[in-house]
Amino acid sequence: MLLTDITIKEFTELLASDAPTPGGGAAAALAGALGVSLAGMVGALTAGNAKYSEHAEFTAELLERAQSIRVEFLALIDEDAETFKKMSAAYKLPKKTEADKAARSEAVQSALIACADPPLKMMALCGRAIELTERAVGKTNRNVDSDLGVAALCLKAAMQSAWLNVLINVASIKDGDFVAEYREKGESIIAEAAPIADGVYEKIMTNYLSQLLPQL
């Protein structure tokens, strides 16, 4: 059974157990899905509102892209779990003889490389979703600005969480070029997207919610 087919209650129970999956990678993807879903909700609550008619084209784009990214995040929940299962299986291979050890080492390295891929994909998705969320600030229903802020926070947390999963996998990979490539890609995404997510939160706190709640 796919993790995306179970209930929230079942997912969190598994997450809290000693089951091998879901783990941090699946949790990161879920956080990303929640974040971009909130951005989509903001678009849904803006669409058709005459007050924001000048941004109708963007609102339509927001709805379409948020839906597409959400689906990709959900797919990564299961992809991450599957790659982890394969890595666990590789570590359980016999290592009695030198031939066993060589085969096991090769299988483990292959599995680690595979495991590094889903979280890096998550990071890239988070970057796209954060950029989309930033563009929504000031163009969407002001009554749900707080939800847009939560979207940015969820997406930043998802991105940083996925980065931890990239790092834990590349730490044991012997292919120096692969490690350097994945570290460079991850660091680049973080450097570009994290400040944007922070900026969304700050804009909403200072420019919008402060007007609604002067006591802040």
Question: Can you describe this structure in just a few lines?
Answer:
The protein has 216 residues and is mainly alpha-helical.
Largest sheet: none
Domain count, please report it. 1
Q: Can you give the helix content as a percent range?
A: over 70%
**Unreliable segments (pLDDT under 50, ≥5 consecutive)?**
none
C-alpha Rg, in Å?
20 Å
Q: List the secondary-structure elements in sequence, H or E.
A: HHHHHH
Structural class: mainly alpha
CATH architecture identity? Up-down Bundle
The amount of beta strand, in percent, is: under 5%
The helix count comes to 6
Question: How would you describe this structure in keywords?
Answer:
Four Helix Bundle (Hemerythrin (Met), subunit A), single chain, elongated, 216 residues, mainly alpha
Structure description:
With 216 residues, this protein is mostly helical. It has one domain: Four Helix Bundle (Hemerythrin (Met), subunit A) (Up-down Bundle). Helices cover 77% and strands 0% of the residues. The chain contains six helices and no strands. The chain has helices at 8-15, 24-44, 56-91, 98-136, 145-170, 176-212. It is elongated, with a radius of gyration of 20 Å. The protein starts with 7 loop residues before the first helix and ends with a helix. The model has no long low-confidence stretch (mean pLDDT 94).
Chain-wise SSE layout:
Layout: H1 8-15, H2 24-44, H3 56-91, H4 98-136, H5 145-170, H6 176-212
Helix pairs in contact: 2-3, 2-4, 2-5, 3-4, 4-5, 4-6, 5-6
